[in-house]
Amino acid sequence: MHWPLLLALEAAWAGLGQATQHYPAMWGHYDVCKSQVYSDEGLTWDYMACQPEAADMTKYLRVALEPTNITCGDPAETYCALENPYMCNNECDASTKELAHPPELMFDFEGRNPTTFWQSTSWRKYPKPLLVNITLSWNKTIELTDDIVITFESGRPEQMVLEKSLDYGRTWLPYQFYATDCLDAFTMEPRTAQDLTQHTLLDVICTEEYSRGYVWKYDKTVRFEIKDRLALFAGPRLHNMASLYGQLDTTKNLRDFFTITDLRIKLLRPATGATMVDENNLSRYFYAISDIKVQGRCKCNLHANSCVFDKEKLVCECEHNTTGPDCGRCKRSYQGRVWSPGSYLPIPKGTANICVPNNIGPVNCECFGHSNRCSYIELLNTVICVSCKHNTRGQHCQLCKLGYYRNTSVELDDENVCIACNCDPFGSESERCNATGFCKCKSGTTGKHCSECLPGYLWDSGCKSQVCDDELLRCQNGGVCLSNLRCQCTVGFSGVLCEKPHCESEAAGCGGPDSARNTSCPSSAHLLLLLLALATASCWPAAL
Ligand SMILES: *[C@@H]1O[C@H](CO)[C@@H](O)[C@H](O)[C@H]1NC(C)=O
Ligand SMILES: *[C@@H]1O[C@H](CO)[C@@H](O)[C@H](O)[C@H]1NC(C)=O
Ligand SMILES: *[C@@H]1O[C@H](CO)[C@@H](O)[C@H](O)[C@H]1NC(C)=O
Ligand SMILES: *[C@@H]1O[C@H](CO)[C@@H](O)[C@H](O)[C@H]1NC(C)=O
Ligand SMILES: *[C@@H]1O[C@H](CO)[C@@H](O)[C@H](O)[C@H]1NC(C)=O
Ligand SMILES: *[C@@H]1O[C@H](CO)[C@@H](O)[C@H](O)[C@H]1NC(C)=O
Ligand SMILES: *[C@@H]1O[C@H](CO)[C@@H](O)[C@H](O)[C@H]1NC(C)=O
Ligand SMILES: *[C@@H]1O[C@H](CO)[C@@H](O)[C@H](O)[C@H]1NC(C)=O
């Protein structure tokens, strides 16, 4: 099926009623993507930002109910009126078309008499809560342009939450909470959309406005106020669209707030009309929805002026050489510069930001003067600089390569923006240094480049724990320092620094505790006398 949304538009305007007539030009700009103009070169195209018309989005959704068997009529049931338990003429029987209340009836055309509606089973399992999730999925990003309006027959729920998803139902965020008593139900202070300001526009509020007063039989709607929020920027009659568009262009949070792929209505407690639930007649309590209005447009990133319903799915008809369901990419051979959405500014035509052919060369090739060559990476849909010079790296040569750090006192395009870390290859953990040029030192090493030793360490391809050193002559009694790691003692001496004269035996005190050793061994003056005894020395440390 190929179904331009424009066809649906007429019905949508009709459905909107009087309020809409104030805003005929509401989204009037940006309805064409290009037009032919005469210029010096003759007839050429002038490209503009563009977007599809707003339309009734309920025609294109999928609805899912949880639990799946929550719809009434299987088995058949008779329901009583909420306000009058003696009025029990509402029959639900799924096997009889006239008496069935399937979910589709939430989206059919209303205005007929009697109204048609979806209805849940009754609250048979009271006091177990009667919980229903109604999930509406578009499988397409859409932008809401008007209030979401849900019409309940037989009382509005006493507690419900409206949720949205921006990622096809993977994650959900609350849009608005509804309760007869917000504090009690959700521990939130009750507020209304009218309380919001430009600064609190994105607040998620709990409102009591649409839950109380079942006695007002004709007050059936629950609303999520899109227009009140838009009006905070565009003025009460949405006349100052320039201001709103300016905000939408620059504020991602704001754009995202009005953007959805799915909606979920979480029904948590049906209308009871009283503080007490009449346990003897639970046939009075159920949910019934006759209509859900969702007005919006396909999100096409200002690159399409129509959206089609093709193979059960909404797709933007992308212009400006863009492609993808939301026109979120440049076409294969039009990737000469990075894709970007169109812009609403300057009003009224905006900026198209068209995708340009690949062979145009280094357009948008922004490398801060460290390269003049770029390459398109299709997987990431982005253009990156190739062969960054001057020790830079990164998509735009905006970073210093490994082993260099940024000189913050010069601009990014300076040839000397990256300074060598010069980390000592032996003394450092890596080539990397921190933002002020300090290398990460191995233990025992210090200095900006890790080329110096801490006290107690000696340089030897890095700092080694210092045992001896020939210059300082630390090995005593003629010992020789080997690789700074140990003293090779001359015959007759032992000890780390060859400080111990050789001894006859353990019993004489050599190798024993220090206290005994110092006094019981001969002094170095008697060393030579002991030379002859060497061969049979019993306390010569084996390790040396
Ligand atoms: C409704 O959805 C929520 C997830 O948001 C889930 O936890 C809950 O069980 C669902 N309720 C029903 C009745 O399936
Ligand atoms: C719906 O199905 C669940 C699980 O199969 C069952 O426990 C429950 O009673 C059913 N509810 C109704 C209203 O039939
Ligand atoms: C509910 O009340 C009506 C009117 O009194 C009565 O006809 C019906 O049987 C009651 N249902 C139950 C389940 O008690
Ligand atoms: C959603 O659309 C994608 C294509 O964009 C398709 O592959 C997928 O099957 C669709 N999912 C559903 C649930 O229709
Ligand atoms: C792609 O853009 C060029 C202008 O750069 C335009 O002439 C051409 O019609 C566009 N092609 C498509 C398929 O939109
Ligand atoms: C950073 O650049 C400034 C200006 O060229 C220069 O004076 C300074 O010495 C540089 N810093 C380093 C650590 O090289
Ligand atoms: C870099 O390391 C040195 C030494 O550890 C430290 O004094 C300095 O604050 C560090 N600089 C930054 C920007 O982290
Ligand atoms: C033994 O000699 C060592 C090194 O000469 C010295 O550090 C130590 O205090 C002496 N011990 C005694 C008990 O005199």
UniProtKB/TrEMBL annotation:
Membrane topology according to the record: Lipid-anchor; GPI-anchor
GO cellular component, one term: side of membrane
Domain EGF-like per the UniProt entry, residue ranges: 464-499
Pfam families: EGF_laminin (PF00053), EGF_LMN_ATRN (PF24973), Laminin_N (PF00055)
One GO term (biological process): animal organ morphogenesis
PROSITE patterns given in the database record: EGF_1, EGF_2, EGF_3, EGF_LAM_1, EGF_LAM_2, LAMININ_NTER
Locations listed in the record: Cell membrane
Entries under InterPro entries matching the protein: EGF, Laminin/Netrin_ECM, Laminin_N, LE_dom, LMN_ATRN_NET-like_EGF
Residues in Laminin EGF-like domain copies: 421-465
Annotated keywords: Cell membrane, Developmental protein, Differentiation, Disulfide bond, EGF-like domain, Glycoprotein, GPI-anchor, Laminin EGF-like domain, Lipoprotein, Membrane, Neurogenesis, Repeat, Signal
TM regions (residue ranges): none
Classification via SUPFAM superfamilies: EGF/Laminin
Bridged cysteine pairs (disulfide): C421-C433, C441-C450, C489-C498
Signal sequence, renumbered to the chain: 1-19
Keyword Acyltransferase: no
Sequence ranges assigned to domain Laminin N-terminal in this UniProt record: 46-297
SMART domains on file: EGF, EGF_Lam, LamNT
Top-level taxon in the UniProt lineage: Eukaryota
Function: Involved in controlling patterning and neuronal circuit formation at the laminar, cellular, subcellular and synaptic levels. Promotes neurite outgrowth of both axons and dendrites.
Name assigned to this protein: Netrin-G1
Organismal lineage: Eukaryota, Metazoa, Chordata, Craniata, Vertebrata
